[in-house]
Structures are given as structure tokens and as C-alpha cells.
Amino acid sequence: MTKIVPIVLIVIGLFMWRLPARSRFNRTNQYGVEQFKSYSHMRGRRLFEGLARFSGAILILFGIGQFIVPEKYSYSHIGQPVSEEPVSEEPARHHGHG
Questions:
Q1: CB atoms < 10 A from the CB of 58, how many?
Q2: What 3-state class would DSSP assign to 95?
Q3: pLDDT tens figures, 22-34
Q4: What whole-number distance in Å separates Cα of residue 82 and Cα of residue 88?
Q5: CA distance 64 to 75
Q6: Per-residue b/e over 20-52, b at no fewer than 16 CB within 10 Å?
Q7: Between the CA of residue 22 and those of 18, 25, 28, 70, what are the distances in Å?
């Protein structure tokens, strides 16, 4: 079966992991110091970038986990019909007391 879901999770996770690092690089001046408009802008950006990196790491780990687990326990089959086990046609037998 296909492993599209884990690949998509890993790609999105890598993007979310690398985007804050690129933004940080673009904010640095020639002396290696990050420049922000204000203190509150700096705190907000760092919080957002930290959450993005954390979420990206979670997606990467989840995607890798989906490659490792067996297919029947994986989330890769979401949206696909599930084949059910055939049910035996024998009636249930009840043991009566009496």
C-alpha cells in the first residue's frame, strides 16, 4: 500500500522546521545581531517560531512513525474503504441453566 500520508507529514514538518531558521537568518545584520521593530514584536516572533519548530518536529516524528508501524495500525489508510473480516453464519449458542 502507498505511504503518501507519512511523506506529506515529513515534508510539511521539514518546511515548518526550517522556515523559522531562515527568517532568523534574514533578520540578522552584518554584525550577526537580530533586528526587530520592538520588544513585543521580538517576543511574538520568537514565540511563533518556537511553536512552528516544535510542531514541525512533531510532524516529522509522526511521519517517521507511520513508516515504521505496520499498515493495519497506520493512519495512511484514512479515506480508503476498510475490508471487514467475514462473519461466520453459525448462530450463537447459549448455554441455559435449567
A1: 13
A2: coil
A3: 888 888 888 888 8
A4: 18
A5: 12
A6: beeeeeeeeeeeeeeeeeeeeeeeebeeebeeb
A7: 6, 5, 10, 36
* Structure confidence at residue 61 (pLDDT): 93
Query: Which alpha helices (DSSP H) does 1-98 contain, by range?
Result: 4-27, 39-68
Classify residue 53 by burial, with Cβ atoms within 10 Å: 0-12, 13-18, 19+: middle
The alpha carbon dihedral of 41, 15, 70, 68 has a sign of negative
- φ, ψ at 84 (rounded to 5°): -90, 155
Mean pLDDT of 57-79: 78
What value does the mean pLDDT of the chain take? 80
pLDDT digits (tens, 9 = 90+) for 8-17: 999 999 999 8
**C-beta separation of 66 from 4 below 8 A:** no
Tell me the mean pLDDT in the region 1-7: 76
